[in-house]
Write a structure and sequence with these properties.
Layout: H1 2-5, H2 7-27, E1 51-54, E2 81-82, E3 89-92, E4 98-102, E5 109-110, E6 117-124, E7 127-132, E8 153-158, E9 161-166, E10 174-180, E11 195-203, E12 210-219, E13 235-241, E14 244-250, E15 263-269, E16 274-283, H3 288-297, E17 315-325, E18 330-340, E19 343-345, E20 351-354, H4 357-360, H5 367-393, H6 400-408, H7 411-415, E21 419-424, E22 437-438, H8 451-464, H9 466-479, E23 488-490, E24 497-499, H10 535-550, H11 553-571, E25 583-586, E26 596-598, H12 601-621, H13 624-645, E27 664-665, H14 670-677, H15 686-701, E28 714-715, E29 731-732, H16 733-745, H17 749-765, E30 775-776, E31 782-783, H18 793-803, E32 812-818, E33 824-830, E34 837-843, H19 854-862, E35 866-870, H20 887-900, E36 904-914, H21 916-927, E37 934-938, H22 944-952, E38 957-962, H23 966-978, E39 983-987, H24 1004-1016
Parallel strand pairs: 34-35, 34-36, 36-37, 37-38, 38-39
Antiparallel strand pairs: 1-8, 2-3, 3-4, 4-5, 6-7, 6-12, 8-9, 9-10, 10-11, 11-18, 12-17, 13-14, 14-15, 15-18, 16-17, 19-20, 20-21, 21-22, 23-24, 25-26, 27-28, 29-30, 30-31, 32-33, 33-35
Helix pairs in contact: 2-17, 8-9, 8-10, 8-18, 9-10, 9-11, 10-11, 10-12, 11-12, 12-13, 12-14, 14-16, 16-17, 16-18, 20-21, 21-22
């Protein structure tokens, strides 16, 4: 595959490109640092690449919508959101106020609620003062001291964490607040939690003691957004238990039945030397007493008033922490905010439970429990965030501005009206234990899982939460054969009335929050998406990509019939038999106002790449007839693509006779981009790819807006912008990031970085932070803020990681092994410190690699073991394609190597497998009981092969799973009954899976070392 064959060349090109980039960074017009304000020294570590802005400092240069379809323009105040995936989100601005409300999933609301706020009291010498810590100037709560000036500190953001560093001469204390939610890649539990953590670091830098008070106030928001909070009945209560003090905001009833109902909670721990106090209730129209109480001494009078709100009355509560600080003393004070609104209801009336209810129930009265759990877990969550981000932040091969944008664009997965369901209300939980996942195309285009756009954005899910991406693909696949001629809707662009969905067509979207997502698809009715020429190819390409990323052959086998139907359906549009589908002189693809006719570079390239992907998948599933058919279509299509579209410099927009058919489209190589990203053979000659990318860079990037705004969609050969459509004149943020990824894949590092920087420049220097639009023009007017497609920046990360040399861990030796069927495997061997050592063979999980075991392998080596870890075929640095039918040969090859090492005792070798590696471990052990002394299975799964092997293998077995990993726990308990002598561990308070259990508070390393000591050490 090209991506591997040219690795050395690409690395050298990367070094050269970065050298060039440093020159361009110093000369480019408008190219500024991702971090215009320096990170202050202190106790709180803030990554240097965090985006920053003075707290509350206005920004007057942001563009505004240029057409009526964009209705939402909240201005440039946005900051990072709080909340988990599908939990509903609360956005907090860089002014310090809570203002963006996405608790009613699918509905956008921007409104500052001033009662939701932090305030500070300081008594120093004979001076005492109290201030609200926000640059907001609200009309309510006028008695409160809203006097903090704009710029009295700096806001920093690097998703999912944000920091408010206060630098105000009026305060003789140093204050920093860190906030985040536990949105953790690969963690399908904590990532769903409706919770925010606020950790304050307070320091007395003076030579005299001082008294500090922090007050967290919160409005009872049960029913807010639905106007139910104005009906009366909401009440607040104080809770003190388990060393915690806090307030719960709720309304009568033991359980909820409506989406607007639920509970909120704010809590803080009771700490030595810290006084926690409260006032459970005050009216927003009469907040004077609460403020005077706090401003007197930094504490509150401990008033618990559960009286319900009267009609039209809005109530709030206050929680305060007071501490005396000696000179030079620093204290850390955490608060948590949680909300429990378990139901999502859509316009058609369908109700769903949210994902987090799988762990906290559906009563809606568990906000306290969620907040309390967060206080206990947040240090581990933060450590996991840091471990995830650290390799990227430490990379010298990545510009700082890119690191800023890479993480911060993930805000949209939380803030995009995201739904993650845990079954219908009144129905069973999802059979797969995961549930459906959906996010909006944008806050303006309220369509869930818009598939033509998700094609770009999906690189984020596919790399960080691949199970959600696979579930999304399954949900789309189910709809492909569906169609009801009687279910029609009118098309706005033409007035025609057409079926919403016809069999064989991949849906444009999975529905709207105004209707019934998952049940009523294709809510989009601007054009008839049944005739689109990109959706079906995009389904096939994403399926192949997801297989390459995860190695999940079962996914390919399951969705192969849908892929076949999708290709057959699209092939009908090849009306002249040239191997390429024809466009119909209408906007029948993701550029839905830009007309294509006949074969196009965009649609044709996607089709060719999809055929290559289908040929590979057909070989995996053994469908020889389809493979042969697709090869015929591919051969014909590639020849036609070159003959009809290549003009010597680039691929023409389309093969029609229209005046803009020879326009230079920025996205003309979308199919080749996916082919490169997934290791497919090139769909066009490599030299044509290089020439076309250079042409796009020279025209669409450098000749547009002085080269500092990304790639305009269409340019004419004379160097002017294509004005044939409003979309041809736009820069699409997500398309530009994808184009940059394509350039970087091909070693065009200077061009790729410059191209991507243009979008960063407009977004993070131009007032669009945390509301990145779909499109903008050269005057920075925009369309569709808060958009899905910019998540394609994670395609850049995939391109970079695929080219990076993998460092050899300390103590390891890199090995190359060859299986009996000729597959080259990559391995790491850890030599033991003494002769005649016991050996351990480590088998990673699906989508994993040998490096997942590094820390544990080094620990084993230190304890006297010889260790072998390797990449299964198609994984990591091993060659071939993922094929679990051939995995037994991989295990045999690695085992024979380990056994033959002269320093290894061949009679004392054990196997440890994770997830799918458990099947390979126990079946190999059962087939070779005289050679394998024991098998440890971490996070096993339901498999007849595993069950039969457990029954027949006579040696020691260790079974381990985490309580939150329900499928693995269930199967572990089942296997324990089949093997009564097995050691079994179900670890509580975690849902980690496989090798994710390593290097965690679970300390499974100690369990494994103890088991190995009994199994393979001398008797």
């Amino acid at each position: 595959m090209l991506i591997f064959q040219e690795k050395t060349k690409l690395i050298l090109a990367a070094l050269l490109g970065l050298a060039c980039l440093s020159f361009f960074a110093s000369t480019a017009p408008g190219m500024v640092s991702a971090n215009p304000k320096p990170i202050p020294p202190g106790e709180v570590e803030i990554p240097a690449v965090a985006w920053s802005r003075g707290i509350g400092v206005p920004f007057d240069g942001a563009g505004h919508p240029y057409e009526s379809s964009t209705k939402i323009d909240d201005g440039p105040w946005a900051g990072l959101p709080l909340g988990g995936l599908g939990a509903g989100s609360i956005g907090r601005t860089y002014r310090g106020d809570f203002a963006r409300w996405h608790l009613d999933l699918g509905t956008h609301r921007f409104e500052s609620l001033p009662a939701n706020q932090f305030s500070v009291f300081v008594a120093h010498g004979d001076q005492a003062q109290a201030h609200v810590l926000s640059a907001l100037q609200p009309s309510i709560l006028p008695e409160w001291n809203w006097d903090m000036p704009a710029g009295a500190g700096t806001y920093y953001a690097l998703f999912p964490k944000a920091w408010y560093v206060y630098d105000w001469d009026a305060l003789p204390v140093r204050l920093t607040q860190k906030q985040f939610s536990p949105v953790l890649p690969g963690n399908y539990r904590a990532s769903s939690y409706p919770v925010g953590i606020f950790e304050w670091t307070v320091e007395n830098p003076t030579a005299a003691p001082l008294t500090l008070g922090l007050m967290f106030t919160w409005q009872n928001l049960v029913g807010y957004g639905w106007n139910k909070d104005l009906e009366g009945g909401n009440f607040n209560t104080v809770v003190q238990k388990d060393g915690l003090t806090g307030l719960v905001f709720t309304r009568p009833g033991d359980t909820v039945s409506e989406e607007w109902d639920g509970s909120f909670a704010i809590i803080t721990p009771q700490q030595p030397g810290v006084t926690v106090s409260y006032r459970s209730r005050f009216s927003l129209s009469a907040g004077r007493d609460t403020w005077l109480d706090f401003a007197a001494d930094g504490g509150l009078e401990n008033v618990d008033d559960p009286a319900p709100a009267q009609p039209s009355e809005q109530i709030a509560g206050a929680l305060a922490v007071t501490v005396n600080l000696q000179p030079g003393e620093t204290r850390t004070i955490p608060f948590t905010l949680a909300w429990d609104m378990p139901i999502t209801q859509f316009g058609a009336g369908t109700k769903w439970y949210k994902r987090y209810t799988q762990f906290y129930g559906v009563s809606g009265r568990n906000a306290w429990t969620i907040a309390a759990d967060a206080l206990a877990a947040y240090p581990d969550w933060e450590a996991a965030i840091d471990v995830w981000q650290q390799p990227i932040l430490a990379s010298s091969a990545r510009p700082d501005w890119y690191k800023t944008a890479l993480f911060n664009e993930l805000y949209y997965l939380v803030d995009g009206g995201t739904v993650w369901e845990n079954g219908r209300v009144g129905g069973p939980p999802p059979a797969d234990g995961l549930g459906g996942f959906a996010y909006l195309e944008s806050a303006d285009y309220t369509l869930y899982n818009t598939f033509d756009v998700h094609f770009y954005a999906s690189f984020a899910l596919a790399q960080l939460w691949p199970e959600l991406q696979k579930r999304l693909m399954r949900d789309v696949a189910v709809t492909i054969p569906q169609g009801d001629p009687a279910n029609t809707h009118p098309i706005q662009a033409t007035g025609a009335v057409v079926p919403r969905k016809v069999p064989g067509a991949v849906p444009h979207d999975l529905g709207s929050p105004q209707e019934d997502p998952w049940g009523q698809v294709n809510a989009f009715n601007w054009q008839d998406s049944n005739t689109w020429k990109d959706l079906n190819s995009k389904f096939v390409l994403q399926l192949w990509r997801d297989y390459i990323f995860t190695g999940d052959l079962a996914l390919v086998q399951e969705l192969w019939p849908a892929a076949v139907q999708a290709l057959d359906y699209l092939h009908q549009f090849d009306r002249d038999g040239d191997g390429l589908p024809e466009h119909d002189g209408i906007p029948d693809q993701t550029y839905d106002t830009w007309v294509m006719s006949g074969p196009s570079a965009y649609g044709g390239g996607l089709w060719l790449a999809a055929l290559e992907a289908a040929i590979n998948m057909g070989q995996l599933v053994g469908d020889a007839d389809r493979v042969a058919q697709y090869q015929t279509w591919l051969d014909s299509g590639k020849a036609s693509f070159e003959a009809k579209l290549w003009n010597g410099q680039y691929y023409k927009f389309d093969a029609s006779s229209s005046p803009h058919s020879d326009s230079i489209m920025a996205d003309q190589l979308a199919g080749q981009w996916y082919a490169d990203a997934t290791g497919l053979p090139p769909i066009v000659p490599p030299e044509h790819t290089a020439t076309a990318l250079q042409t796009i860079y020279d025209f669409n990037v450098r000749r547009f807006a002085d080269g500092g705004m990304g790639a305009v969609n269409g340019m004419r050969p004379d160097g002017t912008v294509d004005t044939s459509s409003n979309q041809s004149q736009e820069v699409w943020t997500g398309v530009t990031y994808a184009l940059a990824a394509a350039m970087l894949q091909r070693g065009m590092h200077e061009e790729g970085w410059w191209t991507a920087w243009g979008v960063f420049n407009v977004t993070y220097n131009g007032g669009f932070w945390f509301r990145t639009p779909e499109a903008y023009r050269s005057d920075r007017s925009f369309r569709a803020g808060m958009y899905m497609r910019p998540l394609s920046i994670w395609a850049i990360e995939q391109a970079l990681q695929s080219q990076e040399p993998v460092p050899i861990p300390a103590g390891a030796e890199a090995m190359r092994l060859t299986t009996a069927d000729g597959v080259a495997l990559a391995g790491l061997y850890y030599t033991p410190p003494a002769e005649a050592a016991p050996g351990v063979l480590l088998l990673h999980q699906r989508g994993g690699r040998k490096e997942n075991w590094t820390s544990f392998a080094q620990l084993l080596q230190k304890n006297g073991y010889a260790v072998m870890a390797f990449d299964f075929r198609g994984h990591g640095q091993s060659k071939g394609v993922v094929n679990w039918w051939g995995a037994d040969q991989d295990v045999m090859t690695a085992f024979d190597y380990l056994k033959a090492r002269p320093e290894v005792d061949p009679q004392r070798i054990a196997l440890i497998g994770a997830s799918i590696g458990t099947q390979e471990a126990i079946t190999f052990a059962a087939a070779h009981p005289d050679q394998v002394r024991g098998a440890a299975l971490l996070s096993t799964f339901a498999s007849g092969e595993i069950q039969r092997a457990v029954l027949t293998y006579p040696g020691p077995i260790l079974l381990m799973a985490t309580e939150g990993d329900k499928a693995a726990t269930q199967e572990t308990n089942r296997l324990a009954k089949l093997a009564p002598t097995a050691e079994v561990y179900i670890l509580k308070d975690s849902d980690r899976h496989g090798t994710q259990m390593l290097q965690s508070p679970l300390n499974i390393e100690a369990i494994l070392l103890d088991w190995l000591q009994k199994v393979v050490q001398p008797q």
